[in-house]
Amino acid sequence: MTSDADTETIAARMTCDSDVELARLLATHAGVILLRLRKGKRVPASRLKADGDRRSHDFLTAALAKLRPGDAVLSEEGADDHARLEAGRVWIVDPLDGTREYSELDRDDWAIHVALWENGELTAGAVALPGLGPTLTSELSPRPRPAAAQPRILVSRSRPPAYAETVAEKLGAELVPMGSAGAKAMAVVRGQAEAYLHDGGQYEWDSAAPVVVARAAGLHTSRVDGSPLRYNNPNPYQPDLLICRPELADPILQAIATAK
Q: Quick one: which residues bind Mg(2+) (predicted)?
């Protein structure tokens, strides 16, 4: 099992000039730490969630402090330093997206998110899927495979949008529940679904890395009213999200508008 000292040592030894490659390395290494922790001594789910969040957060923030000391960091597990609002570069990270799924040892739908915001735009990012293997980035994001005849719309396992069934009916689509925002977004990127629809509350760290990777794959990303997604806001709350194949964006947005 990876100790606190191990995570500090890994972070101290890392070097990387490319922001995209750094995002990939950070997300991938955090995934290794989380997989090792998950295979360690059996502990209650609540303890595994807490340990996973903390170990991944500590590693990511230590590595960023060493490798990008002038950049600000917005992490789900860290105190929000509003100095980031004056910064030109902000790393937006979710050390463990899908803690519930992570604590269920037979599930692989959890992720690590690392994204870089620069002067108003997301410019680099990576989403690691340690349970499945790959880390997808904004530089090497695959183009989606051909769409299924019946669109598959991914929604939250625990809190799908109230109007999701109506939207699915209008489009002749299938609703597919899945954990972790990152896992759902990357399933669309990898061609395992055509859309990911969320409404009911998220934060910037839930979507920043998935969005920049999805955009690199040529996918549509927006709020559920079609408005742009904006990051590094004073309040990082971001209530809703749509990631989908571009040809489905207008039909889905129209269906949402009439269903809400």
A: 76, 94, 96-97, 206
In the chain, list all ranges with CATH 3.40.190.80.
Answer: 152-259
**Does the annotation flag 106 for ligand binding?**
no
Q: Would you say the pTM of this structure is higher than 0.70?
A: yes
Does residue 36 have a pLDDT over 70? Answer: yes
Q: Which CATH class is domain 4-137?
A: alpha beta
97 is in an annotated binding site: yes
CATH 3.30.540.10, the chain: domain bounds = 4-137
58 labeled part of a ligand binding site: no
Measure the CA–CA gap between 182 and 223, rounded to whole angstroms: 16
96 annotated to a ligand binding site: yes
Give, in degrees to the nearest 5, the angle at Cα 110 between 105 and 116.
150
Say whether 94 counts as a known binding-site residue. yes
3-class state of residue 69 by DSSP: coil
Confidence at residue 14, expressed as pLDDT on a 0 to 100 scale: 66
Give the helix, strand, coil percentages of the chain, each rounded to 5: 40, 25, 35
Query: What is the pLDDT averaged over residues 237-259?
Result: 96
**Got the DSSP string for 106-125?**
T----EEEEEEEETTEEEEE
